[in-house]
Amino acid sequence: MDLKPVNLTEALASFDDIYSPRIVARLNDYEVRIAHAKGDHVWHVHDHTDEFFLVLDGQFDIALRDADGTETTVVLRTGDTFVVPKGVEHKPSSPGASILMFEPTGTATTGDRHRGEIPAYVDSTTGHDLAH
Asked: Most distant CA pair in the chain: distance in Å?
C-alpha cells in the first residue's frame, strides 16, 4: 500500500508520451489515470462503462456519434469535466491538454471496439503504472 500523495503536476512532468495514460491511484475497482493529449485519438466505444474526463490544462475535445451517425463535439477547457456514457461512440482530439480520467481497472484506451487504424502515437493500453 502506497501512503504517499501524488502531485499531479510532477506526475505529468515525469513523461511526455501522448494518449498513454499513467495510473496515479486505485480505488475499489477503479483507476485514476492522467495523460497528455494532442492530435486525434481513434473512434471507439466502451460497451460496459462510462468514461469520466477532467481537463487539468489546455483544451480537450470529444466528438460523439449517435446511433444514426449524427456527430456533435463537446469542447472542454481547463477545469471542465464530462462523462461519455457507456455505449456511445466517441473520438477525443486536442490541440494540447493534460487530462485526468476515472475508469474501471482494465479499461482499454481504445475501447471494446474501435474504427480505423490506431495512430502510432496512440497507446492502446489499460494504463501504465506511474514511475515514482
From this structure: 48
Domain limits at 57? Answer: 8-123
CATH number, domain containing residue 68? 2.60.120.10
Across all residues in the chain, what is the average pLDDT? Answer: 92
Closest to 126 measured CA to CA, from 102, 104, 108: 108
56 vs 106: CA distance, rounded Å: 23
pLDDT for residue 1: 57
Q: How far apart are CA 6 and CA 109, in angstroms?
A: 22
- Judged against a pLDDT cut of 90, whether residue 112 lies above it is answered with no
pLDDT-above-90 percentage for the chain: 76
Alpha helices in 72-130 (DSSP H): none
Has residue 45 been placed in a domain? yes
In terms of Cβ atoms closer than 10 Å to its own Cβ (0-12, 13-18, 19+), residue 67 is exposed
66: in domain: yes
Q: Contact 44/111 with Cβ under 8 angstroms?
A: yes
Query: What's the pLDDT score for residue 38?
Result: 97
